[in-house]
Write a structure and sequence with these properties.
alpha/beta, 40% helix, two-stranded antiparallel sheet
Length: 350
């Protein structure tokens, strides 16, 4: 297992991270998975054996049950791993049961600590943008949690580029603890993050944690053009994330994945994960699985190396369309581009 530095922090995390959205199966999360405590312990065992040191959850997953199960599964080995969780989403019926207000964040953190059976959270992430709460309030609260020892590092998730830059500017202005990472959706199915979020991460020194790197299972190789998805899959069951805007491009990408996977005698899922691990700025992929077989297969992606020709083929079939102002920059700014700019524009100006 390879370990990479998380942004500008001194923390090293495994390139694969266990995501625990499948733990619990309460409410809408039953469409994703319903792993119980014993199943979670077996998944944790597999991850630890493979060298995984980061486990990711959120207070909203199965209404807190995911955190409870993870806390039980890690009992007796908490000091050997890193726990990441999140807060922001609505987790109750009260007017202050969502957002990033001081009230909600402190209460959410304390509840997460109890459910996780720990005295600190290694990475505490704002799960989503909150335009109603002043950033100064949210970031000062996170700074307080860091200084109190309840939280070690902080990160963002699902922010737009300008949201992220504004937050970093506020932290710098007030000397608050700074985001060390962002957790984002990024996959061969949709490389939208390359427009702004990946360049910002490289320019500002943020680690990238990728959620749903297999596009909710779409890139597993089980979904093929002209065929219905497998029974029991989240998309078959009506789970709408991530959305698919171009089915032809998706199936072209899947066909390329399957062909590359046959050359290596591995699953298409492993190829999709290995591709992302070679992308600029990516620190770790958050993987989750309904079964131990799926998890074992995904873990093997950490050791898969793709050739430059295979990467180029996957690049081309999944390439994002250059939106404005990027096509204009590719044409007229090519002599003054930074490494961050080139993560998106490089292939278009060669």
């Amino acid at each position: 297992m390879e370990y990479r530095q998380l942004g500008k922090s001194g923390l090293r995390v495994s390139v694969l991270c266990l995501g625990t959205m499948t733990f619990g199966g309460r409410g809408i999360f039953n469409k994703i998975g319903s792993t119980d405590v014993e199943g979670a312990r077996r998944q944790v065992d597999l991850c630890l054996e493979a060298g995984v040191n980061l486990f990711d959850t959120a207070d909203m997953y199965s209404a807190g049950v995911s955190e409870e199960i993870l806390g039980q599964a890690l009992e007796g080995r908490r000091d050997d791993v890193l726990i990441a969780t999140k807060a922001r989403m609505v987790v109750g019926n009260g007017p202050n049961d969502g957002g990033v207000s001081r009230y909600h964040l402190i209460r959410s953190c304390e509840r997460s600590l109890r459910r996780l059976r720990t005295d600190h959270i290694d990475l505490y992430q704002l799960h989503e943008w909150d335009g109603a709460t002043p950033l100064e309030e949210a970031l000062e609260t996170l700074d307080t949690l860091v200084r109190s020892g309840k939280v070690r590092y902080i990160g963002a998730s699902n922010y737009s580029g300008w949201h992220l830059m504004k937050a970093l500017a506020v932290s710098e202005r007030h000397n608050y603890a700074r985001f060390v990472s962002q957790q984002i959706y990024y996959s061969l199915q949709a490389r939208d993050a390359e427009y702004e979020l990946v360049p910002i991460s490289i320019d500002q020194g943020l680690g990238i944690l990728v959620w749903s790197p297999l596009a909710g299972g779409l890139l597993s190789g089980k979904y093929r053009r002209g065929q219905q998805g497998p029974e029991g899959s989240r998309h078959f069951g009506g789970w709408a994330e991530p959305p698919v805007h171009n089915e032809d491009k998706l199936y072209d990408t899947i066909e390329a994945l399957v062909e590359v996977s046959k050359a290596h005698q591995v699953s298409a899922a492993q190829v999709a994960l290995a591709y992302l691990l070679g992308r600029p700025g990516v620190t770790s992929l958050v993987i989750g699985a309904r079964t131990e077989e799926q998890l074992s297969d995904n873990l093997a992606a950490a050791n898969l190396k793709l050739t430059s020709e295979e990467r180029q083929r996957l690049d081309q079939v999944s390439a994002p369309v250059l939106l404005y102002p990027y096509w204009h920059q590719a044409q007229n700014a090519r002599e003054r581009l930074t490494p961050a700019d080139l993560t998106l524009l490089g292939p278009y100006i060669q």
